Amino acid sequence: MVQLSKTITNNVKRGQQICILVCLSLLVSACSQTLQRQTCVALAKNVTYCLAPIPANSQVRSVTQQVAIHVNDSRHELLTQLELDREQLTLVGLAPLGQALFTLVFDGTELQSQQSMLLGDEFKAEYLLALIQLIYWPEEDVNAHLQGAKLTSPECDAPQCRRIYASGSDTKDNQQESILKIRFNKSDPWMAEVELAISQAKFELKITPI
Known about the structure:
By secondary structure, this protein is of the alpha+beta class. It has helices at 2-30, 125-136, 139-144; strands at residues 32-34, 40-44, 47-50, 61-71, 74-84, 89-94, 100-106, 111-116, 146-147, 149-152, 160-166, 180-184, 194-198, 203-209.
């Protein structure tokens, strides 16, 4: 009986999460525009990352996160709801006060994007999706879709780190030349607070699970 009760409770929670995600998507669609999005983004000069397919061994996940973005002297905060299974990834973004901002749906090949007109044309939610893959996707999957650079997992003063170096650089002797740095405060990336920095772009991203 206890196990059955736990199963029912988990199913109810999962159903609630799906309902919330559907409602958020509808809110975005009510005052949004459908945009054609590229699946490749530039990380630095001559360095490009193209969205990788959904990993074959992906676990079903439903994750709510607080995201803080620093670019130069500007700071932006939003909440994201990420749904992942073996067939697709859905990412919904909300402003701190609850306004729906964007919905991205990626099936491993095609990227569908609904974005609030309040964000303007310059905001590119797919860039955030690419960074999420650099953070959570298996290293070999990322490297297969990373051009002009390589992702590594060096030793560091944190439970786990990732670095991206331009192709041809010495990752042992030139630590300061990394294009992108990722730091986790726990060994399980999905449970960790994540800090990502691209120094050349004066860009910082912090993800906190909720």
